[in-house]
């Protein structure tokens, strides 16, 4: 999964774009063109195989790896034809719940709505998508008589277009340059009166008209048919469309707009959790070392340290500022890559049976010398408990220890940890030693995972007993010195050394009387 991509233009300028799995390639192109000073509506993206990318796809479906290099290419000036289908809500479906048409790729979403609501196809009646009003209903009353604006909401490929700026995006800017696309239309009530919203939209379009070129819009309007212009002001709602204060509005107008369903679900499998937590377990354990005031007594009179999850909605690492130059490869990176390629190309002799026996004996001796191991138990609600186990403790001891911490001990659960061979599950029965048999050493992170029979109540609530939750403390993350400060200090030291070297070269240079005659 790509966490960042590098976008290059024709002059070899580069722009590093941070990405997420749900980020669309159209947004990547927009950010890259903003950094490179290009017009995103006239450019596209190509990968290393010179294949044009589908800008409507998100990163997770594009097949791009982390650090992939993309090329910005100029698209054809003539717009292509895109087949558009507009899915209407149940309140507006009528005879047909889907309107279709063909439009140039430079047509905006707002123009599509104005075209479909005007009934330009001839067989469809006129509708109202962009100037809807809904009365404000009060408890025990039939209506206040004042209309509030109901904004159109367009959903396409997991994206929701609500604001005026989003609805002014063209099909090409959303990544649709050919083929077909399905737009789902719904309506959402706002807190703005209808007349104020109409004035605001007219002012917005007038300001947008001065910034945009008229050639593109005129060509789009001519090819879209006889529909109304994007910048055409709203018609004032007549008496027939405005409901009276005494009459209750129709169910279609009272019905609240459908909210967007879950756009992205991040499913976390046990293996993914362990693999992700494995590299950070050592750092977290070192930062959260137990002190005298944080140590409490666990179920079998075992000293433990309890830490609460972070109260922030985003991880601390994502809030740290980053330097874009860190993602640009340097000469040192190229040399290191070449050295690794040269090392991997050398044939290596496989170890003999005697060497393998010596390695196994050394590992067994190292395991036998280990007396204890630090284990951090992470629960599903992100509560963490740290304790020390000896070489005599088994997996049954660890299960009993975790059960003693839980408020509901009868709920089924399992314990998993990451080893050198990959993710492993701790057996519930049997005298399997943690250090001697499972190979635990140093500091190990163990994850508590609910099994199939666990109730939904315990999955959503807290896991630890109240006496342990009250003694939980926050993990103190140490601040690391910024890289820029270290680099400036190194540059200062290197600069002083260069000045001294230059002074020595001038002192030990060729004397003037030895120079040959000629130009000075």
TrEMBL record:
InterPro entries: TUG-UBL1 (IPR021569), Ubiquitin-like_domsf (IPR029071), UBX1_UBXN9 (IPR059238), UBX_dom (IPR001012). It holds the Pfam family TUG-UBL1. Signal peptide: none annotated. Residues 214-229, 247-270, 308-318 have a biased composition (Low complexity). GO terms for cellular component: cytoplasm; nucleus; vesicle membrane. One of its GO terms (biological process) is intracellular protein transport. Residues 368-448 form the UBX domain. Residues 212-319, 486-520 are annotated as: Disordered. SUPFAM superfamilies: Ubiquitin-like. This is UBX domain-containing protein. It comes from Letharia columbiana. The lineage of its organism: Eukaryota, Fungi, Dikarya, Ascomycota, Pezizomycotina.
């Amino acid at each position: 999964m790509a966490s960042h991509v590098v976008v290059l233009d024709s002059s070899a300028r580069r722009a590093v774009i941070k990405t997420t799995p749900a980020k669309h390639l159209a947004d990547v192109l927009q950010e890259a063109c903003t950094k490179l000073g290009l017009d995103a509506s006239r450019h596209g993206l190509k990968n290393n195989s010179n294949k044009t990318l589908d800008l409507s796809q998100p990163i997770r479906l594009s097949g791009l790896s982390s650090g992939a290099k993309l090329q910005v290419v100029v698209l054809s000036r003539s717009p292509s034809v895109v087949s558009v289908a507009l899915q209407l809500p149940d309140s507006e479906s009528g005879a047909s719940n889907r309107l279709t048409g063909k439009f140039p790729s430079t047509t905006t979403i707002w123009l599509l709505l104005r075209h479909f609501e005007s009934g330009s196809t001839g067989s469809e009646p006129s509708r109202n998508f962009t100037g809807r009003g809904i009365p404000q209903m009060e408890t025990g009353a039939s209506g206040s008589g004042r209309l509030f604006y109901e904004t159109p909401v367009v959903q396409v490929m997991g994206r929701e277009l609500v604001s005026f700026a989003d609805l002014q995006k063209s099909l090409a800017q959303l990544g649709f340059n050919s083929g077909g696309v399905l737009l789902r239309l719904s309506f959402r009530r706002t807190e703005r009166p209808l007349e104020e919203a109409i004035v605001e939209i007219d002012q917005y379009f007038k300001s947008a008209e001065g910034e945009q070129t008229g050639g593109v819009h005129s060509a789009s309007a001519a090819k879209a048919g006889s529909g109304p212009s994007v910048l055409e002001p709203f018609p004032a709602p007549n008496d027939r469309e405005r409901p009276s204060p005494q009459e209750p509005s129709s169910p279609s107008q009272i019905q609240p707009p459908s909210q967007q369903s879950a756009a992205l679900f991040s499913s976390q499998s046990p293996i993914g959790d362990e693999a992700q937590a494995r590299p950070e377990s050592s750092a977290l354990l070192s930062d959260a070392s137990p002190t005298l005031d944080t140590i409490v007594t666990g179920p079998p009179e075992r000293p433990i340290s309890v830490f609460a999850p972070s109260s922030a909605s985003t991880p601390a690492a994502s809030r740290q500022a980053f330097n874009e130059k860190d993602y640009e490869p340097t000469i040192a990176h190229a040399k290191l890559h070449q050295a690794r390629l040269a090392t991997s190309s050398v044939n290596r002799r496989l170890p003999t049976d005697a060497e393998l026996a010596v390695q196994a004996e050394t590992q067994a001796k190292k395991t036998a010398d280990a007396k204890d191991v630090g284990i951090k138990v992470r629960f599903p609600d992100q509560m963490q408990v740290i304790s020390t186990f000896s070489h005599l403790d088994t997996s049954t001891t660890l299960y009993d220890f975790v059960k003693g911490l839980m408020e509901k001990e009868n709920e089924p659960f399992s314990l998993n940890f990451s080893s050198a061979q990959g993710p492993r599950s701790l057996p519930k029965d049997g005298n399997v030693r943690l250090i001697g048999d499972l190979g635990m050493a140093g500091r190990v992170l163990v994850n508590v995972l609910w099994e199939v029979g666990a109730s939904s109540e315990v999955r959503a609530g807290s896991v630890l007993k109240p006496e342990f939750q009250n003694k939980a403390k926050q993990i103190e993350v140490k601040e690391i010195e910024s890289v820029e400060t270290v680099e400036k200090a190194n540059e200062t030291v290197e600069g002083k050394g260069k000045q001294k070297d230059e002074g020595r070269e001038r002192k030990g240079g060729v004397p003037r009387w030895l120079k040959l005659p000629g130009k000075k």
